[in-house]
Design brief:
Organism: Spiribacter insolitus
Structural class: alpha/beta
Strand order of the largest sheet: 2-1-3-4-6-5
Oligomer: single chain
Protein name: DUF6231 family protein
InterPro entries: DUF6231 (IPR046199)
Radius of gyration: 19 Å
Number of strands: 6
Largest sheet: 6 strands, mixed
Shape: elongated
CATH topology: Rossmann fold
Helix content: 25-40%
Length: about 160
C-alpha cells in the first residue's frame, strides 16, 4: 500500500495556510505558482530581485524558496537561503529542484541545517522539500538543566 504523493501546489497551499496570520514570502519565477496563490496575501519575489535586495527583505513567518527558479548563481541561491534562515523568517521551506544537480541540492541544504520535510510531484518530476524551523532545530539534551549545570557532586573531588 503506497501513499499518493501530493502535488507541489497543494503542498505549498497547505504550508502557507499553516503559517497562519503571519506574512508568507515566496521566492519563485514560476507563473503557475503566482497565479494559484495570488489571492492568499502572499508576497512574491523573483530570485534576482531577492538576491539584489538582501537588506530590504521583509520579516516573514514563512519563507518558501523554489529551488528550480533561475538564480543568478548557485552561490547566490545558497546565500539567499542562509539570509532568509538567519534574519528574515521564522520558518523556511526549500523546494529542491527535481534535477539531481540543481542549485539547491540535498548536500547544500543539509549543510545549512535543513531537514527533509516532505515530497511532492509536479510535471517536472518528484520534488523534495526541506525545512528549517528554529523552534525545532535542536532538541535540548537531558543533562542540560539547572540540576546538572554546575556539577556540585564534583566540588570536593577536583580543583579547577
Amino acid at each position: 500500500m503506497s501513499k499518493e504523493i501530493p502535488k507541489t501546489l497543494e503542498l505549498l497551499e497547505t504550508a502557507i495556510d499553516s503559517a497562519g496570520e503571519g506574512t508568507s514570502l515566496v521566492v519563485t519565477d514560476a507563473a503557475a505558482v503566482r497565479s494559484a496563490l495570488g489571492g492568499q496575501g502572499v508576497m512574491f519575489l523573483d530570485p534576482d530581485v531577492a538576491e539584489a535586495s538582501f537588506d530590504k527583505l521583509p520579516r516573514a513567518a514563512l519563507a518558501v524558496i523554489d529551488g528550480a527558479a533561475a538564480f543568478p548563481s548557485a552561490t547566490a541561491a545558497v546565500q539567499l537561503v542562509g539570509r532568509l534562515r538567519d534574519l528574515h523568517a521564522d520558518r523556511v521551506l526549500v523546494i529542491a529542484s527535481a534535477e539531481a544537480d540543481g542549485q539547491l541540492g540535498r548536500q547544500e541544504l543539509i549543510g545549512l541545517g535543513f531537514q527533509r520535510w516532505a515530497s511532492s510531484q509536479d510535471r517536472d518530476g518528484r520534488r523534495r522539500w526541506y525545512e528549517f524551523d528554529i523552534a525545532h532545530y535542536k532538541v535540548t539534551p537531558d543533562w542540560l538543566n539547572a540540576r546538572h549545570w554546575a556539577n556540585p557532586e564534583l566540588w570536593d573531588k577536583y580543583r579547577w
